[in-house]
Amino acid sequence: MKYLHADLAIKALLYEVVTLPKPGLVDPATHGSHPDMDIYTFIDSTLSLRTYFEKAEELGRNYDGKLSDMFEKLRKHGIKAEQRMFASTKGINTHKGAIFSLGIFVCACSYAKSNNCDVFKIVQSMTQGLVERDLANIKNPKTAGEIEYQKYGKAGIRGQAEAGYPIVNQISLPFLRQATGTLNEKLLDTLMKIASVTEDSNFIKRAGSIEKLDELKKWSKHFLDLGGAKEAEALAYLSRLDNLFSEKNYSLGGCADLLIITIFLALEEGTI
């Protein structure tokens, strides 16, 4: 059996991690703000997720029932995928966010192809009520998403999922479609476009304050205003930003997850 969506999911994960320089993130040149990881950790982690994406594709291809139930079945596969990821990385969290979001899109794309419907609407139907179910009644918040929901009322990636990932649908995917330059340049520009509009829970957690988001958006916009990765001045600015992020322990983990989905959908439609 062919697993075309799973193939593209693996490719999307690898495309993201080799793109450089990404502020605070792992790439082939640096571990950024993640001294416990390197490019090889991400390769090992990516390959460990192959079975999960195949299961997600099978689930979407063959499902005939309530889409919210399809999502719950997917989450069970996701729990096993996390276990395989941690086994392959010796306990390091490389792709927990991608297991959630990219798994949703592999499953939804497979379902959409079999049923000739819009993938973003499928995602909305799959995740309807997710924020309320997962976050509304948490008594002892532990994850960044749970803590920030209680502290700031921000629904994070769950809110994006329930809304059908509007940042991807309306901003990053259209942006990547019209981006120019090398693939590395296009993906860098797309990452910083995402950073200019996203409330990245990983960045908020590491920065220690939601107010720092304004600075992130200002930095990201300045990079794009300088002309993006095709311009030497902008690239030099991004390298300085990378050093700042490493020094301050900032990371764009949430933005990276949204970039992965954007890459995956661009590969699905043949844009890249």
From TrEMBL:
InterPro entries named in the record: CitG, TriPribosyl-deP-CoA_syn_CitG
Stored Pfam families: CitG (PF01874)
Keyword check for rRNA-binding: no
Protein name: Probable 2-(5''-triphosphoribosyl)-3'-dephosphocoenzyme-A synthase
Key words, A-Z: ATP-binding, Glycosyltransferase, Nucleotide-binding, Transferase
Keyword Glycosyltransferase set for record: yes
Assigned EC number: 2.4.2.52
GO terms of biological process kind: prosthetic group biosynthetic process
Lineage: Bacteria, Bacillati, Bacillota, Bacilli, Lactobacillales
Gene3D superfamilies: Triphosphoribosyl-dephospho-CoA protein
Catalyzed reactions: 3'-dephospho-CoA + ATP = 2'-(5''-triphospho-alpha-D-ribosyl)-3'-dephospho-CoA + adenine
Native organism: Lactobacillus mulieris
